[in-house]
Design goal:
single chain, 357 residues, alpha/beta, seven-stranded mixed beta sheet, globular
Amino acid sequence: MINVTKTYLPDREKYQSYVNMLYKSGWLTNRGVLVQDLEARLSSYLGVKNIICVANGSLALQLAYKALGLENEVITTPFSFAATTSTLSWERLKPVFADINKDDFNIDPDNIRDLVNEKTTGIVPVHVFGNPCDIRSIQSIAEEYDLKVVYDAAHAFGTQYKGESVLNYGDISTVSFHSTKLFHTIEGGAVITNNDDLADKIRLLINFGITGPVTIESVGTNAKMNEFEAAMGLCVLDEIDFIVEQRRTLWERYFDELYKVVSFQKWNALSVNNYSYAPVLFKSEAQLNRVEVKLKQSNIISRRYFYPSLDTLEYLDSKQVCGISRSISCRILCLPLYPGLTENEQKSIINIIKNAL
Ligand SMILES: *Cc1c(COP(=O)(O)O)cnc(C)c1O
């Protein structure tokens, strides 16, 4: 079976040597040496000032909302993974959906502007499939109305924007290090910010608000990354160039072979693709269904990322109807993309798609 993704497992002996170290030290969590090492190495690899590793990408988002004091309404995109919206609801914030652009699939700044009102406190855009949003327009809306911006950058590990990491934008950016993501720590995530005070606040929040053996300064939660996860991250980071290169080769082959029969996401002109996903857009949902079934018959699993459009979730009872997001959601399919997918396997995927169309 060929799945849409496959967790990257790094050099086993290297991971084993970290595990041996942990057995010797007995220090398995609570900001151990490996988490500290991973944060330092990520900060330098990505070129970001403060990076706080946490237990997962969903908690990274929740911590960002908390640290920035978001209240009431938050404007976000309906074209994303469920967590972008569910973390808002979990924190008792009301997600208000701005529609997306039909070419780059990112939140439409004009639509954000239409939805801002006296209850709005923040904007949570997603760099969907790693493609940077219209950062300049979002920033100017935020400044005009005094709103906080949290970029859900779960897909944007390693994405460059104007020659630096896209994670440097917004009051906070968050990433996910889940096993299915480009870079992973089994489960994990991180909060990134240029603001040192915010970084300190988040470090406090992830450890119960405890500042010393007998001092509890504030409310907090448990969102710590453990040492086994950090060890996995250190091993995967050693191989990250190989991972991205493999993905790039595969992505480019999909593009070269398929650009005449399906549409591809329009990438931000100030940025380079990080090849985290291979989404293709069909003319109709019927076309998509035909391809999905044909692939399945050959034991190839594609995934309908992102479907359904989150403005259709019944538990939210949203007032907004995001027509473009609904239309894209119904017609988009992510194709298998991971290091280790062979050229022959990929060619058979491509042939099945071409034949089905
Ligand atoms: C994966 C993902 C998350 C959640 O990250 P987890 O580490 O799985 O909690 C949030 N937002 C987006 C867009 C994602 O793809």
